[in-house]
TrEMBL record:
Name of protein: MBOAT family protein
Entry similarity comment: Belongs to the membrane-bound acyltransferase family.
Keyword Membrane: yes
Principal location: membrane
Amino acid sequence: MSFTSLIYLFLFFPIAIAIHTISPKKVKNNVLLLLSLFFYSWGDPRYLILILFSVAITWFGVNRMYAIKNRREEAKFYMVCLIVLNVAILAFYKYYGFLIDNVNAIFRTSLSIIDLPLPFGISFYTFKIISYIADVYTRRTKPQKSFLDFALYVTIFPQIGAGPIVQYADMEKELVARKLSVDKFGFGVEKFIFGLGKKVLIANNMALIWAQVKGMPNLEMSSLTAWIGIVAFTLQIYFDFSGYSDMAIGVGYMLGFKWEENFNYPYISKSATEFWRRWHISLGNWFKRYIYFPLGGSKCSPAMQFRNIFVVWMVTGLWHGANWNFIIWGLYFGIIIYLEKTVLANVMSKLGSKIKTVYCLLIVVFGWVLFDFQSVTQILKFYSNLFVLGANGVVDSTAIYLLRTNWKIIVPAIIGSTPFALKLIDNVKHRFGRNGYFFVSIFYIVIIVLSVASLVGESYSPFLYFKF
């Protein structure tokens, strides 16, 4: 069930919020768990058994591991087994076909592949489970005594589809006792509506532009057409994923939880390193805490630092998808970030702020080409179009048409990817007092009306990160 489906917006979401709000405090978690399991099973109830198996084996195993915490070797054995088991489940469903395809290509075999749909949210809830196992083992937190509360942590419906990946230590207190308030609820509503507008009004329209460009026969296009297309995808993936994150965080506030921001205007960054501190923040923090730092982080020799960055970014790429283009994309950023920390450090310190922002945007845009095209031939062809190396020139009629018909949505999207819009809303609230809140309320009502009208008239458009 997508956050932008009419069933979710007008049935599940309001009913879930109402039931949770009026439920007695003692049973709120149980009610929310049942709602979350219903939400999860909506698309494919078969995988409900899989997620409950992971939850059960992890809960029992971690409690046993903690009970023998003084026997370090035995406790470590439990920790390793639990992590390996959960990673193995993720790897089987996500990388089984990719592995067989590569075995067939390398050894010229003809092994058959069973078509296994990717379980909904498995990449996200597996990382939550792994962080829980590691944190209890390292004594950052204590195990959850209640099986039902732990199951709620893993399956809570706002996070299950595409994060944010909130670590158990950051939710522990609110699972036990959280307070609902008018202020929290109001902020959550604003956050949710803003995210809905990002997805429906901007991301979905950017997707149409990108689909038109990407679908051109043999990628025959002018340089300007290629740039319009990849800029559209750059905006699409940002508004799509940050829109989902805003909606998830907003629902969390309405349920009494306070989850940190998952995006912090990444397109105003001045380096690739800064970009990844601002983009998908919860995933970046996960990789730092559970892979990069345990490997030694940056407090080691240059060779080991390169190894650590290489491992993290190869895994980052592979996490995003079972295809070589994702691995190449991850290593692309890994190499750039390593160079920024070493060779380019002195050079970049002397550059002006605007130049560094342009540099970062180009790095990111070129990276999105690797991210979205799965064929090396397509990647090289599209790059040649960007740099006017093809036979289609700088400008063609398609580029003129795309600009003429879409500039009214592209320009606001570019502005919306900066802090300007939210600052303007805050200024209106503070400058005009009650009238300011009235104007902002009208603004949000307009977003809802336009979003619903758009959803009624268009085909289903799932969030991009659901497939990861």
